[in-house]
Automatic annotation (TrEMBL):
PANTHER family for this protein: S-ADENOSYL-L-METHIONINE-DEPENDENT UROPORPHYRINOGEN III METHYLTRANSFERASE, CHLOROPLASTIC, SIROHEME SYNTHASE-RELATED
Lineage, top ranks: Bacteria, Bacillati, Actinomycetota, Actinomycetes, Kitasatosporales
GO function term, MF aspect, one: uroporphyrin-III C-methyltransferase activity
Protein name (record): Uroporphyrinogen-III C-methyltransferase
EC number: 2.1.1.107
InterPro entries noted in UniProt: 4pyrrol_Mease (IPR000878), 4pyrrol_Methylase_sf (IPR035996), 4pyrrole_Mease_sub1 (IPR014777), 4pyrrole_Mease_sub2 (IPR014776), CobA/CysG_C (IPR006366), NAD(P)-bd_dom_sf (IPR036291), Siro_Cobalamin_biosynth (IPR050161), Sirohaem_synth (IPR012409)
Annotated pathway: Porphyrin-containing compound metabolism; siroheme biosynthesis; sirohydrochlorin from precorrin-2: step 1/1
Keywords: Cobalamin biosynthesis, Lyase, Methyltransferase, Multifunctional enzyme, NAD, Oxidoreductase, Porphyrin biosynthesis, S-adenosyl-L-methionine, Transferase
Tagged with keyword Ribonucleoprotein: no
Organism expressing this protein natively: Streptomyces hokutonensis
GO process annotations (BP): methylation
Domain of life: Bacteria
Amino acid sequence: MAENPAYPVGLRLTGRRVVVLGGGQVAQRRLPALIAAGADIVLVSPEATPSVEAMADAGEITWERRPYADGDLANAWYALIATTDPEANTAASAEAEAHRVWCVRSDDADQATAWTPATGHSEGVTVAVLTTDARGRDPRHTAAIRDAVVAGLRDGTLVAPHHRTRTPGVALVGGGPGDPDLITVRGRRLLAEADVVIADRLGPRDLLAELPPHVEVIDAAKIPYGRYMAQEAINNALIEHAKQGKSVVRLKGGDPFVYGRGMEEVQALAEAGIPCTVVPGISSSISVPGAAGIPVTHRGVAHEFTVVSGHVAPDDERSLVDWPSLAKLTGTLVVLMGVDKIGKIAETLIAHGKPADTPVALVQEGTTAAQRRVDATLATVGETVRTEDVKPPAVIVIGAVVTVGPEALA
Ligand SMILES: C[S@@+](CC[C@H](N)C(=O)[O-])C[C@H]1O[C@@H](n2cnc3c(N)ncnc32)[C@H](O)[C@@H]1O
């Protein structure tokens, strides 16, 4: 005879007593969701894993350190039976049945009156996947379906349009250093929901190819503007499209607030009364060295790292960088936009006391298929950039951390 399918339901457990029998791995996996649901949880178990014990110490659950005893389920709304003692599990299961308490059994799904679905969350929605009957139970399959749905919702490959009115406005999204996998989940989702995307030259350009044909993609570098007017032209484009009621994503390389002029755009949008949300990104200043096997800090080697712009030379009156002070620091110096001026930067650092043999690495087009690392010292880097023809974009790392990683990673 075909078994009836389980009836799916969402239990609202706030303040309601839930009894968990057994403090092992099953409890450890299930308790966080019960805690998040606001349940009044009583754990009955002589022992518990360190994580479960920490939940009791934090007051998230009440732990009674003893084996199961008849009567434990009397006032419960829901029970999770997961002890290592089959007899106790059977007795507790019978008690749950007698008191009409829905109960999950970790050791015998057939005897349970409830099953825990494989669950995941995305943007205010819980995805819960159950198999239809106990005989067809395949927890790996349900978990795989849950993963596929949640991953698809998060990265935008599964598009579920919102039927509530979307708030038009601008999302300033940090796209990470270049590898399309290094954008945040939120950034990728907003990209998938956008009507218009205004993108920089740096960042995950490959993601633009995935956008549906109706999405208007604007290359920020090609917005017509006069000299020095680029940022204003971009601000205007953002404002105009948002005013037309469109969802606009401003896609930037790395993090929007690390040499990204992100706050200028936020300010312009605020002045125009346009709602704006900022999604942080993985900055090239840390991730590009890391991708080339260089940690910006390392125990016993560098206790600080300083990120600095090298777009103007140290002797340029527009420079805001205190190079003599930087020369005295013992930690790591990370220079962005510095390929053209690295010779002069190195000379200035040496002139102010930084040892000429300090290791330097230049990482060009980090995290992309074209990634390339070139090593030098402060004394040689100016010449090396020329002979090796290093081109922007590159992150330059100066300091002892350059040589701490295994060569295989470099
Ligand atoms: C205008 S700044 C923008 C930085 C960006 N907002 C961030 O957080 O990474 C551009 C500089 O970032 C660095 N850069 C960005 N992406 C890079 C990459 N994939 N590889 C090497 N350097 C990169 C280079 O120094 C480049 O000149």
